[in-house]
Amino acid sequence: MELSIQRTLDGALLVDCGDEHRGFSQWLEHELQHSPAYVGEFLSQLKALQLGEQLSVQRAEYLIVADLDEASIQTAPIEGEQLQHLTLNEGLYQNSYDCACGYEDMVQLLESVQSFIN
C-alpha cells in the first residue's frame, strides 16, 4: 500500500494511501483530526485479534471490519444538501465507498501513522 503523510501549515495531517485505498485515507484523516489517540487504540485491538475472530467497528460514517486475513472499510456516501456544498474534487474524494487491504498492510499503515504523529 502506498503511504504519504504530510502536515499542513496549520498542523493538520494529510494522509494519502493511494487511489485504491482512499477510504483508509479518509478515515485516518478524520480520526487524526477528531480523536488522534484512537489510531493507537484501534492498532492495539487489531494486534489482539486471534485466529477466527473478527473486529467490526463503526466510527462516524466509517465501518471497519478486520480479521487476520484482511481489513476493509466502507464509507457512507454524502447526500443531499451536504453534497451541494462540496467542490468536484471533494465530492469525488468523499464518495470512495469500499476498499480493503491485507491484515499486515493495515498494521504497517497504522504503525507508520503512529510513528509520524509521535
Structure keywords:
two-stranded antiparallel ribbon, 5 helices, 6 strands, 118 residues, alpha+beta, four-stranded antiparallel β-sheet, globular
Question: What features would you describe in this structure?
Answer:
It is a single chain. A hairpin with a 5-residue loop joins strand 1 and strand 2 (13-16). The protein has helices spanning 22-34, 37-47, 80-84, 88-94, 103-117, and strands at residues 4-7, 13-16, 55-59, 62-66, 70-75, 98-102. By secondary structure, it is α+β, with helices and mostly antiparallel strands. It starts with a strand and ends with a helix.
Count of separate DSSP helical elements: 5
SSE-based structural type: alpha+beta
Supply Rg. Answer: 14 Å
Low-confidence stretches are 78-96
- Largest beta-sheet details: 4 strands, antiparallel
What string, H for helix and E for strand, traces the elements in order?
A: EEHHEEEHHEH
* Structural shape: globular
- The total strand number stands at 6
**End-to-end span in angstroms?**
21 Å
Question: Could you report the average pLDDT, rounded to the nearest whole number?
Answer: 83
Q: Helicity level, as a percent range?
A: 40-55%
Percentage of residues in strands: 15-25%
Order of strands in the sheet with most strands: 3-4-5-6
